[in-house]
Design goal:
alpha+beta, Hypothetical Protein Pfu-838710-001, 8-stranded antiparallel barrel, 10 strands, globular
Length: 216
Amino acid sequence: MAEPHQEVEIKLRCPRNKVEAFLEHPVLHALDGHHRPERLRMVNIYYDTPDLLLRRSKVALRLRRIDNDWVQTLKAPGRRQGGLSSRKEWEMPVAGDALNLDLFRGTEADLVIQALREHGMESALVPQFRVDFQRMAWMLRPFPRTQPMFRSEIVLDRGEILAGGHTEPVSEVEIELKHGRIKELLRVADMLKRDIGLAEEPASKARRGYALLSGA
């Protein structure tokens, strides 16, 4: 059974002309223990019904390929203030490039799946758009003296959203809280905003994908 994970993260725009400065920023040297930076090839495929029921319910259902492995994720409605967001999510591996919604049984996520089934919409779920990107990831312990328990993961995602025959570039930094307080998470974001000039990104990849899909 998959336990819910409370995802708390800050998203920052990182234009191409800021990428080099980000990669050289001292905070990326504050690696947690033996963790080393990762480079991953990712594909996100977002599913919804033809009338976009999940979008209207503020739920995201995603199938993700990480190199050669597949995971499915369901994200519940959450709270967002600027680039800071907080929401529950359920993530689990699947055998291949297809959803297996039965795996959500026994979790709160199953309430969403049951609602789809009751309305006969489960079979109507189809891919709506995708996001192809390269990810660089660092697991950091940036304040070992003052906040030794604080951990965060910082990722740099670069690629594109593909929806309805249109494309939109993606170049962004996500800082996710792994252990500790949101106060320190905001502190890391403020360092990057101050030193490099990054700005908060209020729209998730899913939100931008739906906007591209609708031509907005």
